[in-house]
Design a protein that fits this description.
Chain lengths: ~250, ~575
């Protein structure tokens, strides 16, 4: 028998079932952690619930519902900073979930700092779909509409019918809009970072050492924009005229 | 010999520096009071370093700068770097400055722990105060719902600046701060103080013992620098602008206050308790004493007084059945001053008479808890008589009645308010374990390019497959395609004859196995003859070409029978040639 065929058969016989068994085992562990988290939460053992839900996140699961549960557990354990951090991460994945919106509003009502930057973003009005749909949905709309565009183009080439050309042009409009939006979202995720203050109270300073002047104080749960990074520090923007340096461990990037 | 001298000199110099690195932390005093700050200095001999003061938990740490100096004593060089801090104690008792870590050149050094004894104010400095704060409540033993006043006072005989007051959380109370803070002067033990007076109205929400935490005031006290000499110009230059004063950070705390909130006593009366606590009265007034059937008149009920007036609800009113009642939105005028909440709430009812007669609106009662008497009281209005006369236009009277089910007065709509706050529960569906991460930049570009790649691949395959087709096949296909197009085109269009021409030419070229676009009659005849077709077929083809060209250029293309004839002949020829 051809040696390559033999290797292929061995691979199918041994490794594929092995990979399947390992994956199933990991899945079971995550399910157990999820159910344990819920159980601990219900008996008001919130710290244990946080530990269990964190296991799921550490396994690389990006789920709005798990993030929401983590936010709830942190909020109940009194950690407003981390609660808002996880709620904000959940909003990125399920922006229209009513439970999430309710709980986030409640958590924000507990934040001590009043939001000062209340200007209405023109970007949000012009590119309203970017607020209505989550980033993943926008990506897949772009991919599917792009696929349709090329499909119509291929049909036009094969059958030389004008109707396919027209359809290709029609699909090109949403393809362009959603592809550009996705590129912007990817750029924003990489270069325009927002973060949440984690400790109860953080002094924002004018420089990178402890002797630097304390400019103002922010409290747990306040959202800031990261402007710059320098060694162990971030330069943050809170509102017009209120910028300064804080240590990296004092914030969590959404 | 020289070499030995050099070696010994080198060892001496290096040993002088080698033993130089030393860290030290010391304070200006180890005993203080909560309102006084102490100064901490951390010195580093033989280099520089970063001092980590994050471990100091018992004090608020304010950095006051750094300095460095160099000394040469007996040929020994020493360099000293110092960091200065002001520490404000956060509580009383035995407080700790833990060993501080100093990071220098990748190594970590530690100072020794320092213990600071923070004594109670009275233990050290009672009676000798230029600044002090106090807090009081107007009644430490109120009933639930009874408003009391929390009064914070700052007394200062010296100038202060950068004052920052941290008010207590007032958990278990609803709190409303009065907007106007008062400032006035007073004399205590012969010393004049400026008093800043802040008042907060508190309403206890539960009956239990509650502690109001201390209010904390942080401020900088303006102090004059001590001078060796004094001159006539001193008073002129004694101004912060000229730098002859300095600021000392201080912190002041009030004592915690205990408030023992009593429950309201059990009400033995059958009359419904209104929920009002304080001192109230109720009034009722009707616009007139007579009206006609079909007319409307307003009954105004006013509840006013001092206490939780904002919680007042419309009292129960027994309106005779001969009236239809429509209730208006209540009006309220509520003020907050140092006596607490006071004001009035007016409930207006529109009465529409539907039956003539003499009626009495019975007295309206308000039962509330009188704080000053520590008992429930009932306040009543006088009964109101009202005469309803028949309408002069009784026949025309048309009082609209709603169906029986809606006989009562319209429901007064109120804004729904939260009465408790909590978060919504967890999401327990197992689909929560599905990951919904977004694609990375490269993954996204990959997915975009895949269909483009397949499309281009299809195009390439098509082009290649066409390239491999024989000219004979391609021309035969072209002939059929042109013929098909001619059959579909409107018979009057000029495109029709062109299609017929292309079809005939392509069919003739396909027999020759070559490609081409046009032929003369002679060429057509020659090709067909050479390919073994009969002379009759060749002549027919040449004749057909001639006819098509003749129709095309003579302008007789609108002749329908001719066109049908040409199409039929072309079809016949193309079929015979393609066999």
């Amino acid at each position: 028998m051809n040696p390559f065929k033999k290797i292929g058969i061995y691979f199918l016989i041994f490794f594929v079932p092995l990979i399947t068994i390992v994956e199933a085992g990991e899945r079971m562990d995550l399910t157990e952690a999820f159910l344990n988290g819920i159980k601990h939460y219900k008996v008001e053992n919130f710290d244990a619930a946080v530990t269990e839900f964190n296991k799921i996140v550490d396994a690389g699961i990006h789920s709005g519902k798990v993030f929401y549960n983590l936010g709830n557990a942190y909020l109940k354990s009194g950690d407003i900073g981390r609660a808002i951090f996880w709620f904000e991460r959940a909003v990125k994945l399920m922006p229209h979930d009513p439970d999430l919106k309710f709980n986030l509003d409640y958590a924000l009502s507990l934040v001590k700092d009043e939001k000062e930057d209340k200007t209405v973003s023109v970007y949000n009005i012009l590119f309203f779909w970017n607020k209505i749909l989550n980033a993943r949905t926008i990506q897949w709309i772009a991919v599917i509409s792009n696929g349709l565009f090329w499909l119509f183009l291929a049909l036009k080439i094969l059958f030389r019918k004008k109707v396919f050309k027209l359809q290709a042009y029609l699909v090109l409009i949403p393809t362009a809009i959603f592809t550009l939006t996705t590129f912007f979202n990817l750029y924003e995720a990489r270069y325009i970072k927002h973060a949440i203050i984690i400790p109860e109270k953080v002094a924002v300073r004018s420089g990178l050492n402890r002797d630097s002047t304390e400019l103002f104080v922010l409290h747990a749960g306040t959202k800031v924009k990261i402007q710059k990074e320098n060694k162990d520090f971030y330069r943050i923007y809170f509102s017009d005229g209120k910028i300064g340096w804080i240590r990296k461990y004092e914030v969590a990037i959404i | 010999m020289k070499r030995w001298v050099l070696i010994i000199s080198f060892l001496l110099v290096t040993s002088a520096f080698a033993h130089a690195f030393e860290v030290r932390a010391f304070v200006d005093r180890t005993q203080t009071i909560p309102s006084e700050s102490i100064h901490l200095t951390v010195t580093i001999n033989g280099g520089e370093g970063n001092v980590d003061v994050s471990g100091i938990q018992d004090f608020k740490v304010v950095s006051t700068g750094t300095g460095s100096s160099m000394q040469i004593v007996n040929g020994r060089v020493s360099r000293e770097f110092s960091c200065n801090y002001t520490l404000i104690p956060l509580k009383e008792g035995r407080l700790k400055i833990p060993p501080l870590e100093i990071d220098s050149g990748g190594k970590t050094y530690r100072t020794r722990e320092i213990i600071i004894q923070v004594l109670k104010e009275s233990q050290k400095n009672a009676g000798n105060r230029n600044i002090f704060v106090e807090a009081r409540v107007s009644d430490p033993n109120p009933f639930v719902g009874q408003q009391i006043t929390y009064n914070f006072k700052l007394y200062n005989a010296v100038r202060i600046t950068n004052a920052n007051l941290q008010k207590p959380a007032f958990s278990g109370f609803s709190a409303k701060e009065l907007e106007d803070r008062q400032s006035y002067k007073t004399v205590i033990s012969g010393q004049e103080f400026m008093v800043t007076d802040l008042k907060i109205v508190l309403v206890p929400l539960n009956a239990r013992k509650m502690i109001i935490e201390p209010a904390v005031l942080e401020c900088d006290v303006v102090q004059h620098r001590k001078r060796q000499r004094s001159s006539a110009f001193d008073s002129f230059f004694d101004d912060p602008f000229f730098g002859r004063t300095e600021l000392e950070s201080k912190i002041f705390r009030t004592d915690p206050l205990q408030v023992d909130v009593k429950p309201l006593p059990t009400d033995t009366e059958k009359l419904k308790f209104s929920g009002l606590v304080g001192s109230f009265e109720i009034k009722a007034a009707l616009e007139g004493s007579q009206m006609k059937v079909g007319d409307s008149m307003t009954l105004a009920i006013t509840i006013q007084g001092n206490g939780n007036i904002m919680d007042a609800q419309a009292p129960d009113i027994e309106i005779p059945a001969a009236f239809k009642v429509y209730m208006d939105t209540p009006e309220e005028e509520i003020n907050v001053d140092e006596n607490g909440y006071s004001g009035k709430k007016v409930f207006r009812l529109a009465l529409v008479a539907i039956e003539a007669g003499q009626y009495v609106i019975p007295s309206i009662q308000l039962r509330y808890f009188n704080v000053s008497k520590s008992s429930y009281e009932t306040y009543s209005t006088l009964p109101i008589s009202l005469l309803v006369n028949p309408s002069s236009e009784a026949d025309k009277l048309n009082v609209f009645s709603t169906p029986q089910a809606n006989e009562s007065a319209p429901v007064l709509k109120k804004k729904v308010e939260f009465i408790g706050r909590d978060i919504l529960p967890l999401k327990e569906e197992l689909d929560a374990l599905k990951s919904h991460g977004v694609l990375s930049f490269y993954q996204f570009v990959f997915w975009l390019l895949i269909p483009a790649f397949f499309c281009l691949l299809a195009k390439a395959v098509l082009v290649l497959s066409r390239k491999n087709d024989s000219p004979e096949k391609m021309m035969a296909e072209k002939a059929l395609k042109a013929l098909k197009k001619a059959s579909h085109i409107n018979a009057t269009g000029p495109e029709f004859l062109s299609c017929l021409y292309r079809s005939v030419v392509a069919a003739i070229f396909s027999t020759a196995g070559t490609k081409g676009e046009s032929l003369t009659y002679i060429e057509a005849e020659e090709i067909l003859t050479k390919r073994g077709y009969s002379a009759e077929v060749a002549e027919q083809a040449a004749e057909l070409l001639r006819k098509i060209e003749s129709a095309k250029y003579s302008g007789s293309n609108s002749d329908t029978p001719l066109r049908e004839n040409l199409l039929s002949e072309t079809k016949k020829l193309v079929r015979s040639l393609s066999k």
